[in-house]
Amino acid sequence: MLAICKLPEKTKDRAYALNFMLGDNKRIVDVEANPLKVTATRSNVFLHHANHYVYGTEGFTDPKSGDSRVNSEARCDRMLELLQSNEGKLNLNTFQEFLRDHANRPNMICAHVNPAKPKAHHSRTLDGMIYIPEKREAWISHGNPCENEFVRYTV
Questions:
Q1: Tell me, what's the pLDDT at 115?
Q2: How far apart are CA 11 and CA 37, in angstroms?
Q3: What's the CA gap between 133 and 37, in Å, rounded?
Q4: Model's pTM, two decimal places?
Q5: What is the percent of the chain where pLDDT is above 70?
Q6: Would you put residue 119 in left (φ > 0), alpha (ψ -120 to 50) or beta?
Q7: Alpha helix (H) ranges present in 86-138?
Q8: N or C: which end of the chain has fewer CB within 10 A?
């Protein structure tokens, strides 16, 4: 299901855009928002997202372009491929392996600095995060998941 909400006129002067996911043990919602529109996508199976806008770009210029957009789209496509090919077998270990994935180098989910790029364009995975709402757990790897262990946090 895809839901789109138009923001009131007075909010159009804001230049802030974001993406975040919310969930509980029954459903997940992926929210994309920009100064012109808020889009919420719901699922009771799984959702995935990278760093580019997928749904809410009408009238808004996505700042991701060129290599940056190609990288984000490749990582997003790879995550969908992993989710679909492992449907029915998804668990904490498979999710951790997904976040350690190095396929499609240099556009890999577990991103590492590409020394061939200028220093101003160096980027890498900062954290790998897995949330399990029904257990009230978060599993977080600070830094690249292939180099760091996932630590369990509870609330």
A1: 86
A2: 10
A3: 28
A4: 0.79
A5: 82
A6: alpha
A7: 92-99
A8: C
